[in-house]
Hints:
The structure holds two protein chains of two kinds.
Chain A: H1 18-24, H2 33-58, H3 73-80, E1 89-91, H4 97-102, H5 107-114, H6 147-162, E2 168-173, H7 180-191, E3 196-202, E4 205-206, E5 209-210, H8 211-214, E6 231-235, H9 239-254, E7 260-265, H10 283-292, H11 295-305, H12 310-333, H13 360-364
Parallel strand pairs in A: 1-2, 2-3, 3-7, 6-7
Antiparallel strand pairs in A: 4-5
Helix pairs in contact in A: 2-3, 2-11, 2-12, 3-9, 5-12, 6-7
Chain B: H1 18-32, E1 36-40, H2 56-60, E2 65-67, H3 72-84, E3 88-92, H4 103-110, H5 113-116, E4 126-131, H6 146-150, E5 156-158, H7 163-175, E6 180-185, E7 225-228, E8 233-237, H8 240-252, E9 256-260, E10 263-265, H9 269-279, E11 282-289, H10 294-306, E12 315-319, H11 329-332, H12 336-348
Parallel strand pairs in B: 1-2, 1-3, 3-4, 4-6, 5-6, 8-9, 8-11, 11-12
Antiparallel strand pairs in B: 5-10, 7-9
Helix pairs in contact in B: 1-7, 3-4, 8-12, 9-10
Amino acid sequence: MSKPHDSAPDAQVPSLRSLQDQFASNTRYPASADEKLAFYRQMLLIRRFEEKAGQLYGLGLIGGFCHLYIGQEAVAIGLQSALNPEVDSVITGYRDHGHMLAYGIDPKIIMAELTGRHSGISRGKGGSMHMFSTAHKFYGGHGIVGAQVALGGGLALAHQYNEDGGLCLAYFGDGAANQGQVYETFNMAALWKLPIVFVVENNRYAMGTAVERSSAETEFHRRGAAFRIPGMHVDGMDVLQVRQAAEVAFAYVRDGNGPVLMECSTYRYRGHSMSDPAKYRTREEVQEFKEQRDPIEAIKRLLVEDGTAEDDLRAIDKEIRAIVAAAADFAETSPEPEPEELYTDVLVDSYSGSAPAIPAAEHAR
Amino acid sequence: MTAPAKGADASAERRLNMIEAINEALDIMLARDPDVMIFGEDVGYFGGVFRATAGLQAKYGKTRVFDTPISECGIIAAAIGMGAYGLRPVAEIQFADYIYPGLDQIVSEAARIRYRSAGEYTAPLTVRSPFGGGIFGGQTHSQSPEAMFTHVAGLKTVIPSTPHDAKGLLIAAIEDNDPVIFFEPKRIYNGPFSGFYDRPVEPWKRHPDSVVPEGHYRIPLGEARRVSEGEAMTVLAYGTMVHVVDAVAREKGIDIDLLDLRTLVPLDIEAIARSVERTGRCMVVHEATRTSGFGAELAALVQERMFYHLEAPVMRVTGFDTPYPHSLEWAYFPGPVRIGEAMDRLLQD
């Protein structure tokens, strides 16, 4: 038997637990009063937006697939509030509305995409799962489970090559964590010390399959160990914890140390998508999270303890409701794309497929 | 070619939708053959996102019907290994749009293990996968990638269009000793779709081919089904489009000879030849994109074999060469207007 490869001892590379140890010494971000209020406002916007999306789906104004982020708001807000929007990039899967709102993208054009209107962020042709914003360095919005993680590796490589100081935040779920391409990317990211933070939003269910039934290692933050990627395990229901973890992880990545794998334990209150009644879990389990772990209620309690007036919070609620109502109005009243739009953006050059023109009557039916 | 097959016994009036028919085929094969195993994302405990495997894990246990991680490459690769070792795996890929991570295994391994081993090993696996649009799935839940598989030597590609055929074809696919890609048109799981999307959804129970015999039967792979007999033109279709074409022809009162191909590989070219030689006109309809679609292969075969019988060029009505859009779904879908106009043109030619 050959001798193990005579590599550098572990002492010369950062310990795989170093970030977790640093985080564990102080898990709460010391948010200012203004920051707490901002977190509350942003999480509430996601919550109310998603509730409205659910209503519009029920009314038939949104068709097909629609995956709501309700319950997971603290993850997107805690992480993205720590980004530098000038240089950093974000990429995620199909449960993407929350990540877009967290990045300050206009709720109107997100909602209009959900309803498939021309004013939607992808002109209605992408739909709920397929949305992008170059202005915000938001790279989607991907309907194929896990595929976005590998793309995130490419974004990070571009950050590194351009020396722009940016990092890529690549979100995926506990289900996507079992896709093979995720591990190809882990290896490349660690090998080339790419500036990327892999974030597993572990909401316990890959569609209808609980993590215990789909995953040999359910401690997802350990899954980078084989690639020497340090892991962090964070309470994703606590926005201050997530933000603190982001501070630790982003500093490490920006120092050129390579990737971090962060697992955020979270929970989705609704089914996987609008067509999922979520019968694979107990009512008690859902209630426990809603009543005892809710991220928005938690920050609200902190605000009240700090002396924020109830009236001020109510004013925010009212303002958010108005924003969401305006987004819904916009999304309902905007026109659908013209049939000619079918041909746009297929290729950069003018479209040259062999298909004949669409009879106008087809769309008018 | 067989006539529209109906159950021969007294149970002939039992009506199932497509999901129930597929579930029954799986149930029967699990009961008959201990080598049959079913696995895929959400298929066990949850019973499948479209409920095609509902109740099977409870009935046959977790060693025969089980959930997998979201790992399509691993799922298909495991099925190939199991098949090579003598089992008869039936893997589900939750949407055809998710099959691409497993494409390497399908193309390079499943399709060639028999050839490569000079027949010592085979890969008798069936990959079931819902495909096609009409449910507002957008670009990652609507695709019809059948031509990618018909292009690969060593695979069989099957697409049922009725509950009766879904059951018989799935049983035949599972019993087949070659790898079979079994695409299920998800738009017609719960009822045949006329293409007139603004009309109420028809349930299967009013359709004659929802009569599904009990017990084991199979429909041989490679036999087309004649849906309607006519003189005006031959129309070749499969999956959802069979019902759309049928509805359009009825509305317009054109007596078409409509063939539901049912299996693309092997293809019932003899049935196509008999029909086209009689009608002299041929239209191909599919939902997939046009360029290099299976319609191109059909058009080539028809002109190669039946050129001197043709009175007009073979016509294709297909999806456009674009991704499947979310919002313009019905502009993309080759619906009644496009098919109807094409029929008129073909009759004038």
